[in-house]
Write a structure and sequence with these properties.
Two copies of one chain form a homodimer. Chain A is about 65% helix and about 15% strand. Chain A is α+β, with helices and mostly antiparallel strands. In chain A, a hairpin with a 2-residue loop joins strand 2 and strand 3. Chain B binds a DNA duplex through helix 1, helix 3, helix 4 and strand 3.
DNA sequence: ACCGGTAGTTAGCAACACTGAATAGCAAGA
DNA sequence: TCTTGCTATTCAGTGTTGCTAACTACCGGT
């Protein structure tokens, strides 16, 4: 994966995972798969598991152990009230950043056009 | 500044600064000021200077020392060809990420509406 | 008995933004 | 003169984050 992507995921991956959990509860392995489906093809499994541990420790999600038919028990994560609040804050921060960056992008596009 | 903002800036601040330099060359102190004008009110000066050192070492910018009338000499940074290529890659990465996240956001908005 | 898919854990690493302090030049006011 | 204030840059140390790589563990089919 591009190095830029890696760096850009810092600070956003957490929100992305919480957003996925806001759609419906899920366990680690499943989340990794959903991320792949979403287009984040190369996110390491280890990364997701580590992230889940973090958001659990911060109390943003509730966890339930569910036996699996084909493997060790799953840890199913459900976003809770604190997680919901955190996610809202995430959207606000994201919107702010996205707006600024889009503005910059457009300004540069215009500058380039004028220069041609 | 919010902790989320700090984390989200990782990977994007570099692109933002390069984008600012793509508009016109500038020196560190000035860049900090421009960032404030852009709405990034609380980016530490030290952060900007450290970032400038990094992108200089990677050869993304050219540097010229210019005497200042009111203080020590300025280091004026100009984006070069390598920096331009890097910036383009940045826009691609950003667009990809922004698209995915917007999709997720919209999906959740819809989910919430249905639930009401 | 072995292999492949499912599921999770852990240790160590590199990159990045922040804090806080230090350095340095110059101008205007007490 | 001394000091305050603005301009301008540098540096050491910290915390968070995502990645890599290896390991454990459970199950079914060959």
């Amino acid at each position: 994966m591009g190095k830029q992507t890696t760096e850009m995921l810092k600070g956003t991956l957490e929100g992305i995972v919480l957003a996925i959990l806001a759609v419906s509860p899920a366990y680690g392995y499943e989340i990794t798969a959903r991320l792949r489906d979403e287009g984040f093809s190369d996110i390491a499994e280890g990364t997701v598991y580590a992230l889940l541990v973090r958001i659990e420790q911060r109390g943003l999600v509730d966890v339930e152990k569910v036996p699996s038919e084909k493997g060790p028990p799953r840890k199913v994560y459900t976003i809770n009230a604190a997680g919901g609040a955190y996610l809202e804050e995430f959207w606000r921060t994201w919107s702010f950043l996205a707006e600024r960056i889009e503005q910059l992008h457009e300004r540069i596009e215009r500058t380039n056009e004028e220069g041609e």
